[in-house]
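Late entry, evening session. Most of the bench is empty. Finally got around to the prediction I had been postponing all week. Sequence below, unchanged from the version circulated by S.P.
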Amino acid sequence: MQQEFTLGIEEEYLLVDRDSLQLAHAPPALIEACQNDFQGQVSPEFLQCQIEVGTRPHATIRSAREDLKRLRSCVSARAATYNLSPIAVSCHPFANWKDQHHTRKERYDALQHALGGVARRMLICGMHVHVGVEDQALRADLMPQLSYFLPHLLALSTSSPYWSGEDTGLSSYRLTVFDNLPRTGLPPVFTSWGEYERTTGVLVELGVIEDTSKIWWDLRPSHRFPTLETRIMDVQPRLEHTLALAALVQALTRMLCRLKARNLRWRQYDKFLIGENRWRAQRYGVGEGLIDFGDRSIKPMAELIGELMGMLAEDTEALGTMTELARLRQIAESGTSATRQRRVHAEAMARGDDPGMAVVKHLIEEFHADL
């Protein structure tokens, strides 16, 4: 198999004041210091309370871990000089989106204008995983197959049960907010790279979008890199959970390429059916299982992940990611960040403490747990 399946990870963080635990604006000097430490790997995000990091391309999960650990440590250390702390969570437990302001850059000013009031609610953070797929035709061929697993990735990653101080009943409220934007959701099915270019090219030629970076599907060919970019996942409070999910995306991509080399492919299911699993993941996380369409049954996530690990055994061994994928079974059995946040919230309520502040303190601890 000639593909290298290089790995790149992007994460978005929120910055909170260490005393009030409220969201805080990122001082320009903080962004500048991080950018000086990691040229091209740290940038401001749409809202002033956000900061984004991105690893270099890596051939192994080990080198990706070291890169991401350095990035997280850098942002934490630099933020501490301003009495701030980063948290890697998709929604702040009690912040009000109406109090936030977007970063004043030409790019973000244009985005605010294009999206109107929808943009104001974008107080959400995600993680994106890039896997190197050099051949354009192969990228188009893999997209509808990899889409089958997007609900699994969402279920395992859910970290946004709260919005504006209320429990939404969902495990990923972030996706509810993001789906209000145009050009989001499950990707269309393209029969070729040419069809993808012709379809997206209509919007570019008409000036509706400047390029395909303004297409925000759950899975897309990257505009900047020769990669497939998986975008459906909530950001992870813990570094090791980020790496486990990234390793799963990498292994799934390798598995589908391995099938193709044997003249096989993953069965393609209608977006309507995959969308139902996407909703189940958004609503329940790992709590209620997903539909196994081949088996025509609803299976617990622990069982699905066990089956998936069996199918990916050859790939995880080749990639050296067996340890990382083993953590996914633990998540499937014990719950995601959404589960842990709700537990901390309930325990704080029982003690008579402020539950929202308790959850933020918990998220700060989890951010630093693996550094």
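Two things to note before I forget:
The longest strand covers residues 7-17.
The two ends are 34 Å apart (CA to CA).
Will write this up properly tomorrow.
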